[in-house]
Design a protein that fits this description.
The chain is an alpha/beta fold. Helices cover about 40% and strands about 20% of the residues. The protein has five helices and seven strands; from the N terminus they run βββααββαβαβα. Strands 1-2-7-6-3-5-4 form a seven-stranded mixed beta sheet, sandwiched between helices. A hairpin with a 7-residue loop joins strand 4 and strand 5. Helix 3 crosses helix 4 and helix 4 crosses helix 5. The chain binds adenosine-5'-diphosphate.
């Protein structure tokens, strides 16, 4: 499913984000950048331990990543050049609007790095417990708001793991974007 927002291509697809061809893939991280399960676990398994090592070094230097914030590492053996680690909110603990902030910060970082394409997973909808529709709304609004300022980024992918997530995201993006 493809959309065009202020000249930027926005593509929703079903699949595994570690297989996607993009300059950066976004990780659904926690503040300590300890990549155990979910997307984070998959990224480190496929990309290699260097991603976890660089993440620990990042936290040693800068401290924990705030909710809504991002950190960058290399992407190891993945096809991407970078992993942008974005910390989404835990639903019921932190406000869902922090998810929009994480998306805007990831897009800003991709611009700083001069990247053409970036792929997001459904941040906060796994271990962090947010419903697909609320998360999709945050992501769609953040992308729509950021798109007019994007110069370098021309393609934004949202990679959904499974049919249910994909259907919910398509429904919300159609109404919002
Ligand atoms: P969070 O802690 O932010 O909730 P998770 O990694 O637990 O992050 O899950 C975020 C979303 O990513 C969930 O919808 C989960 O189903 C999905 N997911 C898990 N593995 C992958 C993968 N390899 N590619 C894309 N999405 C994935």
């Amino acid at each position: 499913m493809e959309f065009k927002v202020s000249g930027v291509e926005v593509v929703l697809m079903k699949g595994d984000i570690t297989e996607v061809e993009a300059d950066a893939i976004v990780n659904a991280a926690n503040s300590y950048l300890e990549h155990g399960g979910g997307v984070a676990g998959a990224i480190v398994r496929k990309g290699g331990a260097v991603i976890q090592e660089e993440s620990r070094e990042w936290v040693r230097r800068h401290g924990p990543v705030p909710v809504g914030g991002v950190a960058v590492t290399s992407a190891g053996r993945l096809r991407a050049k970078y992993v942008i680690h974005a910390v989404g909110p835990r639903c019921g603990v932190e406000p869902i609007e922090k998810l929009g902030e994480a998306v805007r910060n990831a897009l800003r970082k991709a611009e700083e790095l001069g990247l053409l394409s970036i792929a997001f997973p459904a941040i906060s909808t796994g271990i962090f417990g947010c419903p697909y529709d609320a998360a999709a709304l945050q992501m769609a609004q953040a992308i729509k708001e950021a798109a007019p300022q994007l110069r370098s980024v021309r393609r934004i992918m949202v990679v959904l793991y499974g049919e249910e997530a994909f259907q919910k995201f398509v429904e919300v993006f159609k109404k919002t974007i």
